[in-house]
Amino acid sequence: MRKLLIILLLVVLGIFTYNYFAERNESRQRLIESSSLIQKEVRNVGKLIVTEGTFAQVFTYNDSKRMYFDLLTASKKALVVVNAKVNISYDLRAMETQVDEENRTITILSIPKPEININPDIEYYDVTQDYLNQFEASDYNTIKKRVTASIRKKVEASGLPEQAEQRLISELASIYAVTNALGWELRYNKTVIKSNDELQKVIVD
Question: Are 109 and 82 in contact (CB under 8 A)?
Answer without folding.
Answer: no
